[in-house]
TrEMBL record:
Domain At1g61320/AtMIF1 LRR as annotated: residue spans: 107-497
Protein name per UniProt: At1g61320/AtMIF1 LRR domain-containing protein
Polar residues: bias regions: 1-22
Gene3D superfamilies xrefs: Ribonuclease Inhibitor (3.80.10.10)
Pfam families: LRR_At1g61320_AtMIF1
Region spans: Disordered: 1-26
Length: 500
């Protein structure tokens, strides 16, 4: 069969409209007289086809009978408005939805269901897809041998798509290594069976109870990573001891959550965002890294400072952030004996004018092995206690803050550095008590190291922040630069021309 015949008889595997490329006939003319074409073995052809992005693979199927046959076994089905070439802007949502359903239907009907290794379906911006249609697509996709399954449904309303757990039962679900569900609900979890290969679980806005999740986890003993975000029907999260390989647990913004009780013996990284709850990480001897974000009350930040030394005694890296107004840092009840890296970030819209930056010293004193300390003010603002406004204050003779030395501290960075008296005192204290200090970075912007590197632009500063940055530069020149030890590399970062 020549290329022109293929062109006439083949539909586009994505659009299904029977259109192909005009270049096909031209290419067939160019190849006349060259001689017999090289015929690749079928397995090599499938492998080449599998390495192509989905749209390129579909186009190849339009132009080649061999690739058209291979298309029925194409292993990576990535289905979204973008991958299907659907324009989201300038069309009505019902038109976009009809087009999306039509194209996905055509692909799934022309796919054998065999050989699928990765399946991703992202329905945004379509919000009115019949659940029966979604069931039909999933049933084709989840076949023996599938490794990665992702279903992200865009919903407008309280009723969520009920994921058919029975599709994960038996040999079909046993090969899945990565499972991501978003915008749906899970019921009758007992029908999933034993998922012996599952290593990565990601639930986003999934309606599932704590008991149902516990049952699911108990039958997924190979899990290495669990991520839960906005799963608001979980009150008590229990991690069974059978998860011997679990090393990462992330629980973010689960609004009704009251307790986390983990018995996974080898958990090493824990992330939490939310209000104050009871957290138990078992013996937690392997926990080395914690990210703790507090958005709801300063009590949660207090909890992090006072309880984490007891929850994770061998912690090495700690990231604390809050958008609440904090007046002072509480004193830690215990010590972070193994902590090497500490980062604290405040990004309240209006940072407390009463905040005493020297209260940070209590955390430094509780971390005798600390090597790197980063403190960020995400939204700089004018300080009413500026040392520039009161040059005869306590700046020339700082108060006695602590007798502890920080013998291992090498790198200190402060972003959003301001001219507050207590900020100057904190910086002087660190220089005096840290003989091992190698680099001191004082960044008067919102964080030069976190700028938009891809477009070479810093995080924007408002007029108020630019005024404070100027005062901070003056304060550094007057009260800091002359005190810097010779062995310390002082870096002062000022707003660039793009910030002005």
């Amino acid at each position: 069969m020549d290329a022109l015949s293929i062109q006439r008889q083949t539909q586009d595997p994505i659009t299904g409209d029977g259109s192909t490329f005009s270049e096909v006939k031209a290419d067939s003319d160019c190849t006349e007289g060259i001689g017999p074409q090289v015929q690749l073995p079928e397995d090599i052809l499938h492998r080449i086809h599998a390495l192509m992005p989905m749209r390129d693979a579909a186009q190849a199927a339009c132009m080649s009978h061999a690739f058209l046959c291979s298309w029925r076994y194409y292993p990576n089905l990535i289905l979204s408005a973008d991958s299907l070439g659907i324009k989201e802007y300038g069309s009505k949502y019902d038109e976009i939805t009809r087009d999306f359903i039509s194209r996905v239907d055509h692909i799934m009907q022309n796919h054998s269901g065999m050989g699928v290794k990765e399946f991703k379906l992202q329905s945004y911006p379509c919000s009115t897809i019949d659940p029966i249609i979604v069931d039909r697509w999933i049933q084709v996709a989840i076949t023996p041998g599938i490794k990665k399954f992702e279903l992200s449904l865009f919903e407008l309303g309280d009723i969520k798509y009920s994921f058919p757990c029975s599709f994960l039962s038996g040999v079909r679900g046993s090969s899945i290594k990565s499972l991501k569900l978003a915008g749906c609900s899970l019921r009758s979890v007992a029908k999933t069976g034993f998922m012996s290969s599952l290593t990565n679980l990601d639930f986003q806005s999934v309606d599932i109870t704590g008991d149902e999740l516990f049952y699911f986890l108990s039958n997924s003993c190979a899990l290495e990573k669990i991520s839960l975000w906005n799963c608001d029907n979980i009150i008590c999260l229990k991690i069974p001891c059978q998860l011997q390989k679990l090393n990462m647990l992330s629980v973010l913004d689960c609004q009704t959550l009251e307790m986390i009780d983990s018995n996974a013996p080898n958990l090493s990284t824990f992330s939490y965002s939310g209000h104050q709850i009871h957290i138990s990480l078992g013996h937690a001897s392997q926990v080395r890294k914690i990210r703790f974000h507090c958005d709801y009350s300063s009590n949660a930040f207090y909890y992090a400072i006072t309880k984490l030394p007891l929850i994770a005694s061998n912690l090495q890296t700690l990231f604390l952030s809050t958008s609440d107004e904090i007046i002072n840092i509480p004193t830690a009840f215990g010590k972070f004996l193994q902590l090497k890296n500490l980062e604290i970030m405040f990004y309240a819209a209006k940072f407390s004018q009463e905040f005493d930056f020297c209260s940070l010293i209590s955390i430094l004193d509780a971390s005798p092995t600390l090597e790197t300390f980063i403190f960020r003010i995400g939204v700089p603002t004018i300080r009413h206690d500026s040392i520039i406004e009161d040059p005869l204050g306590n700046s020339s003779h700082p108060r006695r803050l602590s007798d502890c030395f920080h013998d291992n501290l090498k790198n200190v960075m402060i972003t959003g550095f301001c001219s507050a008296k207590s900020m100057i005192e904190l910086t002087i204290h660190i220089m005096q008590k840290t003989k091992s200090l190698e680099c001191l970075t004082l960044d008067t912007t919102r964080g030069h190291d976190r700028r938009f590197a891809s477009i070479d632009r810093c995080l924007r500063l408002n007029e108020e922040a630019l005024v404070e940055a100027g005062k901070a530069q003056t304060a550094i020149q007057r009260y800091i630069e002359g005190r810097v030890p010779a062995a310390v590399n002082l870096k002062v970062i000022e707003p660039c021309s793009k910030c002005l």
